């Protein structure tokens, strides 16, 4: 009954997974659990839901597919819908604050967090006949919890006579964490390995490792484009700013002009492929010698020498992946003010390459890819570049496994990724640029071999690979605070979270700290069990139940839950929405004249005002202009709008007698309201309070000027400073509450900074008083 487009059919038939359809379906029909392992691009995500659909699994119930990333959720539902020739009414997606699910939905792609939320209201997941956990190797927090829960739900469904299938899909072969975890599965579930059309990828290491990987990335891309045969280039760097920066530089070097006919250029590319690998380029090109002629001569000689050596270079076996680890959130939050210092133009300009750039007439079709990019712009990487131009995608680790970009032949791997690191005792977080895992490096390299033999250029040495790159990074669950999922699990009646069958159990201390934070916030409370031998357990309070209804971190849920007054609610909603979206403002707050009320509300007040004004600009159709003018990130503003809408309708539905709306002309809050809003902020952030360090407290001999904006925070010994752009630098209040604590300035200039700060009154502080 499926009527596929002939073009789609041709493309599908090229995927080896299609030859396995019968075997896969037999395994699914005969087993409740199945693990599907196969390399990225082998067709797991796009094809297996279609097999299930055609086998009738969507007739009475739905097929659920979870993704750890929003990018993939949208893209994959669209792709599968397209391949099945069905509409988005039938193949739909659902993620936090956004979706197109209908009552006719057959295949439902969703973020893993959304399915976890659904389990809270329907523990047996009775709407679904099969659940596919995709990208299980990413080890996202929600995926890990889902696996634990599903390992228990599946047997329950069997007992009820309505079996549920669980398919775990992973891009790698490192699936022992799932198969050999006897807490998770008593018997190891069956596994099927999907072969894929993987062409050999030659790995080239740099001889030396340079700090400036952006410069190296740029140079490598230039060399590939000017010297090597046709084929797309994929560059991996760490974050959004780096991506944009490289895109700009490469576009400027090889511009694409609309009115030029480039179609004749393609045939001019020389030489047989085997001779052109860039590792037969000498390493000494990386030297600072800027005399072109001398350089060329040396290059020729070294090229000959290196060609011999090339044979000895390590090769990876692409059928033997290890686990990759990447942080889906890597570019969700921007870094701190001065961490972009390495992006100066003079840094990257390289005279040696200038003649090559000049003499190359072929344009480079350069596209950015990162998770915060709008979906429509992300979709451009799937399209053919214009005739005559070479495709070049500059990406964060989004392109590592979630999305398959067609026709990539060259991968340039900086070897770096951005990782959020938490200090579990202080709660402070910092973004660090770290070496990728070896497994990630192999995933990245593999992207070059999907359509033909390829080359991967690692911009670091084999020594770095062996000694500095860990084989894989620990899963998210073991790295970040777990407050939200702890609350969700408690609401599901899982009292002893330490006993939960996690694929990899989080640190017990971390769980205990999260419990403590939730207890301080009044979301959990101690219960002494009747059985005296049992430990006391923390259970959810009635406030906690209200809080957990919101798809937000418990802190923000609490602010909403306590915001009873009708006329205050729209402000709380807007404020919470703005606080949960990272990196809203990139401009200086100076561009926002602060008036009485906003100043009273501190940085969150500025944020509130910006959001209100952006909404007004939006109804007038001037959002884009407005955002550019005031340094607001447009995608963030759109995201905030969605959250405001959803939270507003959720509150109207769930709290009787309440009927609020999103007012595009929201007036600034009145004094009394601003005061209440600050109290609400404190209610959610009550464990994050700071007291100004008086100058008399500064030790003899220390520079007092360094303490101008310094505060005591909690148990922290060292001073914490107001963010350099905090509006409160104008007033420096005695007591403050802050949204986030983080570290800046690298090793020498290390400094603790608080972000989104508001003044509070000391008499509001029943909960917590720092020393
Ligand atoms: P896996 O899940 O195993 O990584 P996918 O099912 O995502 O693989 O992709 C299978 C193939 O489908 C890829 O090799 C890619 O070429 C193609 N493909 C996936 N998404 C798209 C898309 N949006 N447009 C064109 N081709 C796509
Ligand atoms: Mg996939």
UniProtKB/TrEMBL annotation:
<dbReference type="GO" id="GO:0003723">
    <property type="term" value="F:RNA binding"/>
</dbReference>
<feature type="region of interest" description="Disordered">
    <location>
        <begin position="318"/>
        <end position="346"/>
    </location>
</feature>
<dbReference type="GO" id="GO:0005524">
    <property type="term" value="F:ATP binding"/>
</dbReference>
<feature type="domain" description="Helicase C-terminal">
    <location>
        <begin position="317"/>
        <end position="493"/>
    </location>
</feature>
<feature type="compositionally biased region" description="Acidic residues">
    <location>
        <begin position="319"/>
        <end position="329"/>
    </location>
</feature>
<keyword id="KW-0067">ATP-binding</keyword>
<feature type="region of interest" description="Disordered">
    <location>
        <begin position="274"/>
        <end position="298"/>
    </location>
</feature>
<keyword id="KW-0378">Hydrolase</keyword>
<keyword id="KW-0547">Nucleotide-binding</keyword>
<keyword id="KW-0347">Helicase</keyword>
<dbReference type="GO" id="GO:0005730">
    <property type="term" value="C:nucleolus"/>
</dbReference>
<feature type="compositionally biased region" description="Basic and acidic residues">
    <location>
        <begin position="333"/>
        <end position="345"/>
    </location>
</feature>
<dbReference type="GO" id="GO:0003724">
    <property type="term" value="F:RNA helicase activity"/>
</dbReference>
<comment type="similarity">
    <text>Belongs to the DEAD box helicase family. DEAH subfamily.</text>
</comment>
<dbReference type="GO" id="GO:0000462">
    <property type="term" value="P:maturation of SSU-rRNA from tricistronic rRNA transcript (SSU-rRNA, 5.8S rRNA, LSU-rRNA)"/>
</dbReference>
<feature type="compositionally biased region" description="Acidic residues">
    <location>
        <begin position="276"/>
        <end position="293"/>
    </location>
</feature>
<keyword id="KW-0175">Coiled coil</keyword>
<protein>
    <recommendedName>
        <fullName>RNA helicase</fullName>
        <ecNumber>3.6.4.13</ecNumber>
    </recommendedName>
</protein>
<feature type="domain" description="Helicase ATP-binding">
    <location>
        <begin position="25"/>
        <end position="191"/>
    </location>
</feature>
<dbReference type="GO" id="GO:0016787">
    <property type="term" value="F:hydrolase activity"/>
</dbReference>
């Amino acid at each position: 009954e499926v009527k596929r487009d002939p073009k789609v059919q041709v493309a599908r038939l090229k995927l080896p997974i299609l030859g396995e359809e019968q075997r896969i379906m037999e395994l699914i029909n005969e087993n409740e659990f199945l693990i599907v392992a196969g390399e990225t691009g082998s067709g797991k995500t796009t094809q297996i839901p279609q097999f299930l659909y055609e086998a009738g699994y969507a007739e009475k119930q739905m097929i659920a597919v979870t993704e750890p990333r929003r990018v993939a959720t949208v893209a994959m539902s669209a792709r599968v819908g397209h391949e099945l020739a069905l509409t988005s009414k039938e193949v739909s997606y659902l993620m936090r604050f956004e979706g197109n699910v209908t009552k006719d939905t057959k295949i439902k792609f969703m973020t893993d967090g959304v399915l976890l939320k659904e389990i809270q209201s329907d523990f047996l997941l009775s709407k679904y006949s099969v659940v596919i956990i995709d990208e299980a190797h990413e080890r996202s927090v929600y995926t890990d919890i889902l696996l634990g829960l599903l390992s228990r739900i599946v047997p329950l469904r069997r007992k009820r006579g309505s079996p549920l299938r669980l398919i775990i899909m992973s891009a790698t072969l490192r699936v022992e964490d799932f198969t050999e975890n006897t807490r998770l599965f008593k018997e190891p579930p069956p596994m099927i390995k999907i072969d894929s059309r993987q062409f050999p990828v030659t790995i080239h290491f740099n001889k030396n490792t340079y700090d400036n990987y952006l410069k190296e990335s740029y140079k490598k891309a230039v060399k590939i484009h000017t010297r090597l045969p046709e084929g797309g280039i994929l560059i991996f760097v760490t974050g959004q700013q780096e991506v944009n920066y490289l895109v700009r530089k490469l576009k400027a070097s090889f511009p694409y002009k609309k009115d030029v006919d480039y179609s004749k250029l393609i045939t001019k590319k020389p030489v047989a492929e085997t001779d052109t690998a860039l590792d037969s380029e000498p390493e000494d090109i990386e030297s600072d010698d800027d005399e072109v002629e001398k350089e060329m001569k040396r290059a020729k000689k070294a090229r000959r020498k290196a060609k011999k050596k090339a044979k000895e270079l390590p090769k990876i076996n692409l059928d033997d992946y290890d686990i990759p680890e990447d942080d889906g959130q890597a570019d969700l939050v921007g870094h701190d003010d001065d961490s972009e210092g390495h992006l100066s133009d003079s840094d990257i300009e390289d005279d040696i390459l200038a003649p090559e750039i000049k003499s190359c007439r072929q344009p480079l079709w350069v596209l950015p890819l990162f998770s915060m990019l709008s979906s429509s712009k992300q979709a451009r990487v799937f399209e053919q570049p214009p005739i005559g131009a070479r495709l070049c995608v500059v990406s964060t680790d989004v392109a590592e496994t979630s999305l398959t970009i067609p026709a990539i032949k060259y991968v340039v791997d900086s070897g770096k990724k951005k990782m959020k690191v938490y200090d579990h005792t202080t709660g402070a977080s910092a973004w660090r640029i770290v070496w990728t895992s070896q497994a990630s490096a192999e995933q990245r390299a593999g992207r070059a071999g999907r359509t033909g033999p390829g080359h991967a250029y690692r911009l670091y040495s084999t020594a770095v690979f062996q000694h500095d790159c860990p084989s894989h990074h620990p899963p998210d669950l073991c790295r970040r605070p777990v407050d939200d999922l702890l609350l969700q699990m408690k609401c599901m009646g899982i009292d002893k979270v330490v006993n939960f069958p996690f694929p990899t159990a989080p640190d017990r201390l971390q769980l205990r700290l999260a419990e403590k934070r939730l207890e301080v916030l009044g979301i959990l409370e101690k219960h002494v069990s009747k059985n005296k031998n049992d430990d006391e357990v923390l259970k959810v309070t009635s406030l906690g139940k209200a809080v957990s209804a919101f798809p937000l971190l418990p802190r923000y849920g609490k602010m909403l839950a306590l915001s009873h007054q009708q006329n205050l609610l729209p402000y709380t909603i807007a404020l919470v929405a703005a606080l949960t979206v990272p990196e809203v403002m990139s401009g200086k707050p100076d561009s926002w004249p602060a008036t009485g009320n906003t100043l009273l509300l501190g940085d969150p007040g500025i944020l509130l005002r910006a959001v209100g004004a952006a909404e007004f600009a939006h109804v007038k159709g001037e959002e884009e202009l407005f955002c550019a003018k005031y340094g607001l990130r447009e995608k963030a503003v759109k995201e905030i709008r969605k959250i405001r809408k959803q939270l507003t309708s959720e509150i109207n539905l769930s709290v009787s007698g309440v009927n609020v709306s999103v007012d595009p002309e929201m007036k600034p809050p009145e004094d009394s309201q601003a005061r209440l809003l600050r109290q609400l902020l404190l209610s959610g952030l009550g464990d994050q309070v700071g007291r100004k360090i008086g100058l008399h407290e500064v030790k003899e001999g220390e520079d007092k000027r360094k303490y101008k904006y310094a505060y005591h925070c909690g148990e922290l010994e060292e001073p914490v400073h107001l963010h350099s752009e905090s509006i409160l630098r104008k007033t420096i209040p005695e007591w403050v509450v802050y949204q986030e604590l983080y570290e800046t300035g690298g090793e020498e200039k290390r400094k603790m900074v608080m972000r989104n700060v508001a003044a509070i009154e000391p008499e509001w502080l029943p909960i917590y008083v720092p020393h």
